[in-house]
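Let's sit down with a protein and look at its sequence and fold side by side. We need material for that, and I hope you will provide a protein of your own picking. Once you have written the record down, we can walk along the chain together.

***
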Amino acid sequence: MISHRTVRASLIRAARLCLCAGLVLGVGTTGRPAAAQEAASAVQDVVLVDVALPLGDTVFKAARITVSGTRLSRDDLTAILKADSPGPWAPRLARLEAASISIPVLVSEHPGPGGSLQTVTYREVAARDVRAGRIAELTMAGAGVSVTGAHPGSGTYGRIVASDLDLAALVRLSSESGDGKGPVQRIYAAIQASDVTYTEASGVTIRIAGLEGRDFGGRQVPGGWNGAMAGLARGLEAVDPEMTAAERGKLAGTAADLADAVAFGSLELRGLAISRTGAGEPMLVEVGRLAHGGTGAESGTTLEAIAFAQGGLKARLARVALTGVSLAPTIATLRRLADPDTAVTDEELRRLTPAVGGLALQDLSLDMPGAPAPVGKEPGRTASRPPATAKSGDPLATPAAPGAAPVHLALRSGALTFGPLRDGVPTASRLDLSGLTFPAAMVAGMPVLGALPDYGYADLDLNLVVDSAWDEAKREVAVREMTLSGRDIGSLRLAGTIGGLGPELFASHIPAASLLMLTATAKALDLTIQNTGLFERFLAAQAKALSLKPEELRQEYVAATQFGVPAMLGNSPAARAIGAALGQFVTKPGRLTMTAKAKNAAGLGFADFGLARTPGAVLDKLDVDAKVE
């Protein structure tokens, strides 16, 4: 649901809106009397009028600025604020000293791509305890945002508070060039903003009840952050297959610089909502809490109380967490692609994938429009779930279409963990899904599972585990566990080892099917079947279809497994053991375990299976054990 293109683009704009809040807070203060000389000796209040301060492409304007408790004279402050004053901005700002600074209205204007213009109007700006260019506390009563030209829109901020804001660091990072290797400079210790709203002309509205950030800063990059971000925006707009190697290299290098430069301790958003009311079906995405934490490239993200609604589709998710995230592989690949001589291969593009330690989610609920209900059946009612009742005031509660039975899916918990990356592909992974529930009719027609509705299952409650890892030294993939289990059904568990798979497994130019046929070997296989009700239902259904009693049919199956299976497999000791175990399982369905291991340490290759004339010829190359518990 979150991968929806409109939602994803809006989330990116929401993140950019929050980031801009933090940056603009500091940049905006440079329009105040923020440079000082220490020539004056008397503490005084100074009022400046009609101040216009150009900083790069951004111009800050203030009709009135009051500096209280400062030793700077009017001439000192006026000279500092002049665009053509000598000396760089950072050391000038570092000399700023004042008990307080107040600006009734501060306006910033910044040109954007496509001829757009962003105007931000801040109200009641107040800086307290300004020492050595650092503001102990900066407050704003609110702000209004207006964008004209391409992608027009407007928005507002509520109260904004920032602490320990370093003006010199802000200017150095935003406008002064660096090599990207210097120390991290902190812009602010903490920032808070409330009641953020932004609406685009397209009908998309972003709302944030509150946001908090801590320890935001970074390193100086070539062209400064402002120049790098402007260059990246222009480059992304101009991306096309005909881009020259030099242009592509510059774009990749700029992206690497920015990704490697930004650092912050944490960011938390509360009450995030993205809605669309323009063209197309109305859409609503809500996130109760979004928290992102980490230092440098290492970070993790958590979202809580997620809801999505569009048309007849509604989804809720209690929590999703992304942990162990590292941009190091992405940055390293961008650095390589910054060299125009580096070829853009599929492997290089895969290496752009960030490293992720794990993804976990809890309590997923999904409701989709279903087929019209059969005549005489109440719409919206399934075998295990009563019809949903719309709650007053719930924006996600939309009544089902007349005659349509909504389809309900749920997942109690899910976890996906990854091992180290090899060419952008995890070398190990584990998927664990618990409490996956959905109507059995959804699997009708599928192999194996498609027969379950015929055996009396109305709803399915399944668990799935898939755990595998690649061992480079042994050149093999271990399928440590592959288990599918279901309530009142049973479980099927597979484990095994496939050899002959080296680093070429991750080469995109070699088709996976060809690789398996040419090099893969089967070394070992373990199979466990646990019955908890499926076999009895299967036996009853088959007996009814054949007009037999279940016990009569059971005896026929016992004979078929004990005598027919060994005959088909060559009647070897291993074949007879398999037949005997199957006969015992049919007689008393419980737990059946079979193991097979290749007698040749290298395993059995494709030729061993493809050239074998009978199943027994393959079985003769295996050590087989079968038993029933």
